[in-house]
Amino acid sequence: MQAVLSYLAKNQARFLEDLCAYVRFPSVSAQPQHSGDLHACAEWLVRHCKSIGLEARLCPTGGHPVVIAKTPPAPAAAGKRPHFLVYGHYDVQPPEPFDLWTSPPFEPRVEGRSLFGRGTTDNKGQNLAHLIAVEAYLKTNTPLPCDITFVIEGEEEVGSKSLGEFLLANKAELACDAVVISDTGMPSKKHPALTYALRGIAAFEVILHGPARDLHSGMFGGTVDNPAMALCQLLGQLRDKKGRVAIPGFYDDVKPLATYERKQFARLPYKESEYKKLMGVRELFGEQGYTAIEQRSARPTLEINGLTSGYQGEGSKTIVPSWARAKITTRLVPGQNPAKIIKLVCQHLKKICPPSVRIEVKSGHGAEPYLVSPTSPHAQAALRALKSAFGCEPVIIREGGSIPIVNSFKKVLKADALMLGLALPDDNAHSPNEKFDLDCFEKGQLMSAQLWQELVK
Amino acid sequence: MQAVLSYLAKNQARFLEDLCAYVRFPSVSAQPQHSGDLHACAEWLVRHCKSIGLEARLCPTGGHPVVIAKTPPAPAAAGKRPHFLVYGHYDVQPPEPFDLWTSPPFEPRVEGRSLFGRGTTDNKGQNLAHLIAVEAYLKTNTPLPCDITFVIEGEEEVGSKSLGEFLLANKAELACDAVVISDTGMPSKKHPALTYALRGIAAFEVILHGPARDLHSGMFGGTVDNPAMALCQLLGQLRDKKGRVAIPGFYDDVKPLATYERKQFARLPYKESEYKKLMGVRELFGEQGYTAIEQRSARPTLEINGLTSGYQGEGSKTIVPSWARAKITTRLVPGQNPAKIIKLVCQHLKKICPPSVRIEVKSGHGAEPYLVSPTSPHAQAALRALKSAFGCEPVIIREGGSIPIVNSFKKVLKADALMLGLALPDDNAHSPNEKFDLDCFEKGQLMSAQLWQELVK
Question: Which of A87, A389, A406, B38 gives 20 to 30 Å between its CA and that of B412?
Fold first, then answer.
């Protein structure tokens, strides 16, 4: 192991260059104009994986390609070894709004111990840390105690549709003991974390259609419903004053938090003043009866992600807009089912929509919530690797985000996910000025290098 | 008068050519790239006015020029005569979206009795009808019974700022007995109309500020208010189920409709099925207790003109948006004051806004509602001219739109406006495929020719 560790220590400058090269691809999966960039990014990954000694290939799919990279076959003498997958994604969130970025999102910039750029923390930096750990083994000819297959996809930010199909088609090749994923967070550099639960998601769009075209509000206003007002009145009914989602049946299947979980959460680092500062708000607002940590990780929500209607330019335009649209996502917790929730929400919206507008509801992607035991042998091994790399006691946490594909790993490969996130709370994932902490990058590489040893103990 | 009438009858083909020449100028005041076209159009007008015998000049302003054209001084023997202004505007609305036009907006095209083109009805055709009537007097040496000054501006579609200043600076020259304006509508060719009231307007923007940046809805959602949801809940409270604006005091100053007005309106041509078709809606929605004609012309409204928040592109983006904005205008009716209404709305919004978001309200432009007696001697004269030109009984109407400059005429010149609109409901003012009806053009000329005789009776 000494060779591995010193290889890691010696090559940090080059690892950073590799990460910058990776971040420069504007691999925005939600925006069709970037499909060429996604392909180029996947090809770069394949070349990079080959250069560090992996057997890599680009796998075309119905959407963006999947990159598969495997450690070379073990010498026959080694016999059958455990096989682990490392999952990551090379696609990123849209960078908009551009004007809020201090430096261009796809021109990585180092400031202190932070690397700024879209995708630095979510997920290119975290993903690359694992590749680097394996590179250190391969380049120093240190024998790995297991087989490792990297599965790096290009559709995580838009629902992982192609990877789901890919898993089904490549079940045998991908059969494994567990899936290692660094695509979650840690409360602080002193609290490296194993994530044992994720929220699920259900996405949809609501469009209210009014007049056939934008109407002159002077000539027609007063005789026809305004779709923007109708939308406000419709959506305003979806949340009550206690911060609860006001859709009948929404909470029916929610598995209540166990007492030991609430106790664990109460021990996590949290300062309301710092948390408010992190988000830039004067007041918190959430479901009554739960702490902020519980609200953000273990309770379901309904969020309006975007509103669009009528005139949005300078000054004013006196119209009754022809239509109004909202993009909405619900975050779901263990017990809830996205398909059921989408049905529930659609039915409710249609029921309460007034006849003066025509409602159209488009359901988008869904992902089931995820829950795994934090006390399994694999989980214990992961906690030891975290402790050794970060030099302090790790914590177990639930995370509020979703990684839809973990459910497919469970269903198709029967493999649990070991989620060892390297993102800090202020990394601005999905926001302007996304960054990745270079200490987390380095310690993540160490953690990954240790992990393979711990997992086979 | 026979000479005037036969001059009009003989020269329709040439009048149409003049109108086409006028329409060919893309005099779009809202778009800076057209300022040269506005200037060229004003210069064309000056030349045209001179060619028909008026004393015309181009008056530079801080914005687009004003054209002033006066009938030649009366012979000294005539003594002091009444003086009327004819107001019009040579600027037009933006033609966008171009793809919805059947033929190019600035290449006038005749089809049946319609002339298609941007500005044909609003306001070049209506405006030119008055110039033609005076031309007929001057070219046939028929003595006019009054002095007439044409005031034709280039900023009506963007708020008439320069004309307001021009009126103040040229008060003495423009002192008059009344201002004749053809820039409104008539219910049908069988219902020539005198408009005796206009709605006013008050514009503002509401912005709710939440977190300092867009937040990952998985990592933070549940602990912080969503400004888009807060905006929906806020704005949703501004209109009740009966279609009334739910702001305390909003209706306090509304002058109720007189019984004779409601009787008049009930006689106006109106078919619900046709009106719905015109707007492209399945159902009407408006303030209970009023007919559609009353709702659209004589009752105040509050309309959301635009909504903006968060992600608006393809697919979904799982964020809690940092802010949400609505553009709002209220249409006001006689009795209401825009400044007072803006204050009322702002205060109410601030009062009901929850502390979990920060509210910012920006007040925009305002215009007072307008009301003039439909039974004054001038109004009676106008009704007689309408009846004689159109050959049927005229109606008196209120119009739902605003012509802010009428308030300036009243304040600065102490002159009432006689609004004799020639636009039909399907003329598509402000919309693609704007047209002007050539019967209205011809009868408008007749009406204008008669009007000067009737006004001095």
Answer: B38
